Amino acid sequence: MEIQRIGIVGAGQMGNGIAHVCALAGYDILMTDMSQDALDSATALIGKNLERQVSREKISKDDMALAIGRIKTTLKLPDLGQTDLVIEAATERETIKTAIFEDLVPHLKPETILTSNTSSISITRLASRTDRPEKFMGFHFMNPVPVMQLVELIRGIATDEPTFAACHKVVDRLGKTAATAEDFPGFIVNRILMPMINEAVYTLYEGVGSVQSIDVSLRLGANHPMGPLELADFIGLDTCLAIMNVLHDGLADTKYRPCPLLTKYVEAGWLGRKSGRGFYDYRGDEPVPTR
Ligand code: NAD
Q1: pLDDT at position 207, please?
Q2: Of 160, 181, 202, which closes a domain?
Q3: Which of 23, 41, 47, 92 is most buried (most C-beta within 10 Å)?
Q4: For residues 131 and 151, what is the distance between their CA atoms, to the nearest angstrom?
Q5: Are residues 35 and 174 both part of a single domain?
Q6: Residue-wise pLDDT tens digits, 221-252
Q7: Is the CB of 100 under 6 A from ligand 1?
């Protein structure tokens, strides 16, 4: 099946990035959110990010104008019923995602493929709440979407081959690289990345190293572009904790237990960059380690 129209649910951090890259690749986009403000901010941010790409000579002014022209927004979820592929990128809460799919299903064309950008919720479970588990899969972009090359494609237990092939074709047309994962907690990236971040927090908790010495060790000693604590602040400590809990609950192995210090930061509301403070304090000119 040829995909041309893509529906995006959720115009937050991820939704706007997904709309941006899909529109640049020539797809027609219909993006929805429950908040008009979110749609307006997403449209403004996409314009700003495209302009930055023009100023860096990554794309032309014509590419930018064409991409902007391909993005439409709506507050009505049923309008997405006529798209060929839906990418759900709403808030990471299972009840929200399930309600979205249940509301959307009666309006869908029979051939529309449904996908979720979830970082951790079971694809098989989300699929089972729709009328088309064989046409449902995980389409997991990385943040920030315009910059990151990888898309994880996750098959639910029922996902059929034509659905997988159609989604793979979209990833290819975006110029990104697909990695295929089976539907187990954390998929591939977060299954490996989050225990490393959690171990870095244990290293800090046990006093083996300071924030700075842990980050510099991984940057210069393992050639990572960012230290694990810097990266945790960038992702959001609440998100890191939520994913560790999914690994711990879903795999029932104590090796995934979240570090108590990570829990404490989240309880304090020190969630990383987005709240101004995490393992670093971002409220001044330069980030300052908080331990
Ligand atoms: P966000 O909070 O920035 O955006 C979520 C958006 O969903 C908001 O604009 C909100 O208004 C909207 N929304 C909530 N309920 C809705 C509904 N019923 N109908 C329509 N819109 C609704 O979140 P985000 O960081 O963009 O994350 C979105 C998804 O992407 C989550 O599933 C998350 O796990 C996943 N993800 C996030 C990252 C990341 O680093 N932030 C990376 C990969 C995947």
Answers
A1: 98
A2: 181
A3: 23
A4: 25
A5: yes
A6: 999 999 999 999 999 999 899 999 999 999 99
A7: yes
Percent of the chain residues past pLDDT 90, beyond the cut = 96
DSSP alpha helices (H): ranges in the chain? 13-24, 36-55, 61-70, 94-104, 123-128, 161-173, 189-205, 211-221, 228-235, 237-251, 260-267
The tokens for 204 are 């800090």
Which pLDDT tens digit goes with each residue over 105-164? 999 999 999 999 999 899 999 999 999 999 999 999 999 999 999 999 999 999 999 999
What residues are annotated to the active site?
119, 140, 152, 190
- Of 8, 9, 13, the residue with max ligand 1 atoms within 8 A of its CB, to mutate for a pocket test, comes to 13
Q: Are residues 169 and 242 in the same domain?
A: no
Q: Which atom of ligand 1 is nearest to the CA of 35?
A: 11
34 Cβ closer than 6 Å to some ligand 1 atom: yes
